[in-house]
TrEMBL record:
Keyword Coiled coil appears in the UniProt entry: yes
Keyword set, alphabetical order: Coiled coil
Coiled coil: 311-338, 380-468
Compositionally biased intervals (Polar residues): 136-146
The protein's name: TolC family protein
UniProt superkingdom: Bacteria
Organism: Lysinibacillus composti
Ranges of Basic and acidic residues composition bias in the record: 121-132
Length: 518
């Protein structure tokens, strides 16, 4: 029984010194918990999965993103397609799942370690109790078997000497002795022999106690070694779990930042395409007016009112406008193809962009203090998380009893100072970004108001020119020119409206905790 227990304890101590390597956010060496748990980890052999060719082809053909074909595309649909087909977002989600699975795994190992430590501590208490009872004053004790062995040899020598004096061989001694054979000398020898036998029994009793005490002490030493190993393992697992928790926090925050930023980026690209399309539409409207001007210039030239150069200039203006329209259309098609690939839709054929309804745009004011916006931002949460990691590493080094080196502590202290410096630098950068963002909002809103007023003026002028045209006071060419002025004012106003809307989305990002930085 003792040998079996000893081997099990020894095996447990040896096995528990081995480690498991984990990856991703932190590659930490972690001790296993018990022979059973460790065997499941260390002895785990690679699994060779044999699949038929059809299964392999099916797996190879599976895709994470299946592109869809659309005829029309709204801003809301573009954001949904883009965020759902983002490979980087998918990777972050899978990373979060992996971190969660690993955290659950090491949480189970931590529970097993705590349970093993509790059992070992109970076993230690029981062994100490047994050892205390065995060495109490009321019980027989012996410090070394050698002292008893010396007494035994002395007793044996005395016995043999007495037998020699009586001329008795030890092999001739029998259990029974008749009364007629008893003499004073033989009686003394027999008494001495009985005393020796009693001493031998006492020796065996005490020696057995000694062996039991030694066994208890060895068990206790092994349990103490196990407790030390388990305590170290638990500390390592605690650090690992903390690392996983911090990594999950950072990954989750990065995912939120990337998703929210992606929505604004998609909005910006979509509105950019809308602006290009609006510009092309305006230029096509200008094309008919420009053609009318060329026709009028031709008549004036034929009548001798203008020179040939003036007529040629009007034709060149028309040609340049046609060339510019063709270039913008090619650029728009290329940008729409790129945008389609970005958001995960096909571009086999052209698709129509649906003009978004932006509604009435009001001035966005800063209602939350800059300090609170910075403190609650994901940017600052990640920075504080990095500081916590650095401080935890320093605490771990300071808690070390063995293998503690001053140089390692100095490096850890420098890392803490660097993390604090980054927080201070980030605060300044975020404050600058917030102030600049709200300044742009106010500036763009004033520009929007101005362009809205310009549009109203152009519309009123157009009404006046319309009346004059109907009365025959101006030509159709002059009236078409005023119409073009209204369309140009509408184009400028709509572009400014798109730009202001995009700025309000960036402000929403800030309020949601995602502050753009350079």
């Amino acid at each position: 029984m003792y040998m079996l227990i000893y081997l099990n304890l020894k095996e447990r101590v040896n096995l528990m010194t081995k480690g498991l390597t984990i990856g991703l956010a932190a590659l930490l060496m972690v001790g296993s918990i018990s022979p059973t748990v460790l065997a499941a980890e260390v002895n785990k052999a690679p699994i060779n999965v044999v699949a038929d060719s059809n299964s392999k082809k099916k797996e190879e053909n599976e895709r994470f993103v299946e592109r869809v074909s659309v005829n029309e595309l709204t801003l809301e649909e573009a954001i949904r397609y883009g965020t759902n087909s983002s490979y980087s977002l998918m990777e972050l989600e899978l990373t979060l799942e992996s971190l969660k699975e690993n955290e659950d795994k090491y949480d189970d190992l931590y529970d097993s370690a705590e349970s093993s430590l509790e059992s070992a501590q109970k076993q230690k208490a029981e062994l100490e109790k047994q050892l205390e009872e065995a060495t109490s004053p009321d019980s027989a004790s012996i410090t070394s078997p050698d002292s008893i062995s010396i007494n035994l040899n002395e007793e044996l020598n005395n016995l043999i000497k007495s037998l020699d004096e009586l001329n008795i061989q030890p092999s001739d001694i029998e259990v029974g002795v008749s009364a007629s054979d008893v003499s004073n000398g033989l009686d003394s020898t027999v008494n001495y022999l009985l005393q020796f036998l009693n001493s031998t029994k006492e020796y065996l009793k005490v020696f057995e106690k000694y062996q039991q005490n030694q066994l208890l002490q060895e068990k206790l030493n092994l349990v103490n070694s196990q407790i030390t190993t388990l305590s170290s393992t638990i500390s390592t697992l605690e650090a690992t779990l903390n690392q996983y928790d911090l990594s999950r926090t950072q990954t989750f925050n990065n995912r939120v930042i990337q998703r929210e930023s992606m929505e604004v980026s998609i909005t910006s690209s979509f509105l950019g395409l809308m602006q290009t399309q609006a510009q092309i539409d305006f230029m096509k409207d200008s094309l008919s007016t420009q053609q009318s001007q060329v026709n009028a210039a031709k008549v004036k030239y034929e009548l001798g009112f203008i020179s040939l150069n003036d007529y040629e200039d009007s034709k060149r203006d028309l040609k340049d406008l046609e060339t510019e329209i063709a270039q913008l259309e090619r650029q728009l098609n290329n940008d729409k193809a790129t945008f389609a690939l970005t958001i995960g839709i096909t571009y086999n054929e052209d698709y129509t962009l649906v003009k978004p309804d932006l509604g009435q745009l009001a001035l966005v004011e800063q209602l939350t203090s800059t300090e609170e916006l910075i403190h609650n931002s994901y940017n600052m949460v990640n920075a504080r998380t990095a500081l916590q990691q650095a401080e935890d590493r320093l605490d771990d080094l300071e808690d070390l009893v063995e293998n503690r080196r001053k140089q390692d502590e100095d490096i850890a202290e420098i890392d803490v100072d660097i993390a604090k410096l980054k927080i201070e630098s980030l605060e300044a950068e975020l404050e600058k970004s917030i102030k600049n963002q709200f300044y742009q909002v106010r500036h763009q809103y004033q520009e929007l108001i101005k362009l809205s007023e310009d549009l109203e003026v152009a519309q009123k002028d157009n009404e006046e020119y319309k009346t004059r045209f109907e009365l025959g006071l101006i030509s159709k060419l002059d009236y078409d020119s005023t119409n073009l002025t209204v369309k140009q004012a509408e184009l400028k106003y709509n572009i400014a409206k798109y730009q202001y809307y995009l700025l309000t989305k960036k402000v929403e990002l800030i309020e949601d905790g995602v502050i753009p930085t350079n």
